[in-house]
Specification:
By secondary structure, this protein is of the alpha/beta class. The protein is 37% helix and 15% strand. The structure holds adenosine monophosphate.
């Protein structure tokens, strides 16, 4: 997909894209983990790339990364500006569609962390994994599995493998972190992890 010209301030370091929920009703543990992740990512000097909103886990992560002195890049479709309460204290790019948002988030990131979220988060990570399945990218995908939030998703993927729909090797296409500290540790080593080809049809 070709994107319209956007101007993004240069950043020499690594960037992590955080996919996470925008709901304000999320359990406190999840909001807290997003807050802690934003702060910790800033602490190791990684830029946080996210959906640009000021609500739910998204807002918690962006605010804490910003407060900790980290770089944050928000990418928001114009039509969601007020619904997701654009957090404009950080660098923000306003795009025209969900597709542009995702493409830019992918392009701007070296690794992905998937925190608890709703159907929007699910959509984002499933596309990310489906692209990995086709070897269109080799970037690390780390599930932040607070309180076992993603266990049912992993069970569905195992079911897909058992039914012959997905190669068993694909279960290694992501890693799981039960805590923010583990997710940060996995980010730090992610550069050294060799990529396994998944598309062997
Ligand atoms: P949710 O997990 O449902 O709370 O949504 C988390 C974020 O994903 C929100 O910022 C949504 O706007 C965003 N989102 C939902 N669907 C898509 C999509 N198809 N492409 C890009 N972002 C999306």
């Amino acid at each position: 997909m070709s994107l319209p010209e956007v101007s993004i301030a240069p950043f020499e370091g690594k960037s992590v894209c955080l996919f996470c929920g925008a709901a304000e009703s999320a359990h406190h543990d999840y909001v807290q983990s997003a807050h802690d992740f934003g702060e910790a990512a800033a602490g190791i000097g990684w830029r946080l790339v996210y959906g640009g909103g000021g609500v739910g886990l998204m807002g918690a992560a962006a605010r804490s990364a910003h407060a900790a002195g980290g770089r944050v890049l928000g990418i928001m479709p114009g039509f969601l500006r007020s619904r997701e309460r654009l957090f404009d204290e950080v660098e923000t790019i306003v795009v025209t569609s969900m597709h542009e948002r995702k493409q830019l988030m992918y392009d701007q990131s070296d690794a992905f962390v998937v925190a608890p979220g709703g159907v929007g988060t699910l959509e984002e990570v499933v596309e990310l994994l489906s692209w990995k399945r086709l070897d269109l990218h080799a970037k690390p995908v780390i599930f932040l599995n607070i309180n076992g939030f993603w266990d049912t998703f992993f069970a569905l993927m195992r079911h897909s493998v058992e039914e012959g729909m997905t190669p068993p090797s694909f279960l290694n296409a992501w890693t799981v972190a039960d805590t923010v500290e583990e997710a940060i540790a996995q980010l730090r080593v992610s550069d050294d992890t060799p990529h396994v080809k998944h598309d062997q049809r």
